[in-house]
Predict the structure of Uracil phosphoribosyltransferase.
Amino acid sequence: MSKVQVMDHPLIQHKISYIRSEEVGSKEFREIVGEIASLMCYEATRDLKLEDVRIKTPICEMVGKQLSGKKLAVVPILRAGLGMVDGMLNMIPSAKVGHIGLYRDPETYEPVEYYCKLPSDCDEREVFVVDPMLATGGSCVAALQMLKEKGVKHMRFMCIIAAPEGVKRLQEAHPDVDIYIGALDDHLNEHKYIVPGLGDAGDRIFGTK
Ligand code: PRP
Ligand code: URA
């Protein structure tokens, strides 16, 4: 079964509480989503492998550490996942970026695919799939399935807010994918929105409604 890590870092908790408020406008919402993504990326990359590297500083030679193992990629689920990309790249600037376009049908709540463009070597990379919201889990489960069909073998999923229903569905469908969550909320409402949540993440990031 996959690992589920709910972030307990005080800065992450503080920033998530801040953006939940309906008073926060798009500019600030977008900026803070980026900051949260950076902090979550920092936490979720704790176990990346290191190797020794010989360095000559201006003072002397030394053996330091550098990242080894698989190269990284970030794949946002459009649209709202885009809000997390720059924050991720602030931490892992050499990662490549793919895109998966999915929206949730407002009547059936099932995901509808409309786009997929991935780095050509994504099957050799460790892929961080990002989306601020994990509600029913339908979008994430479909995105991970699309990636697996393209040959991706190593994935992690990162979201800012999750509902227990989505976590369960995701773990059942993809037990090999570790899940990093900023805040685990209470439940879904009758429209499959996360309660208490923060509303529609895509609309709040892009100022649409
Ligand atoms: C939101 C969110 C997730 C999805 C979560 O996207 O960003 O992708 O809903 O819901 P689920 O877990 O029930 O599938 P939305 O469909 O609103 O599209 P958008 O990002 O283009 O606004
Ligand atoms: N998508 C969102 O943006 N918010 C929710 O609460 C559920 C799905």
